[in-house]
Amino acid sequence: MTSHVGRLYALAIAILVFFLTWTAVAARPWATTAQADPRLTALAAREQRVRTESAAVSRIVHQRWAVYQRQLKSRQVQIAAANRAQVLAAAAPSVRVVTLPPLTITRTS
Known about the structure:
This protein is mostly helical and 109 residues long. The protein is 72% helix and 0% strand.
């Protein structure tokens, strides 16, 4: 084959046949449907368990957070009352201690 055009056509056809064969092999039309991989089945079951546990933990956390918020409000009310009482006690007139000289002086001879 001395013709360059013939060589180009042969090369193009060889490349075309190569890619067509490649796509046919990659498609695997002869493969039968295999049973599911047991690892994937176990993984799906574990995922379901984890989702269920996650929902339960989330519910518990929300309940505990609500209890904490109620207790916090109660404690803040107590602290505010204590602060008010302290301010009222500080605003009351304080006792003043005065040292005076004695009223009578006695002298001995």
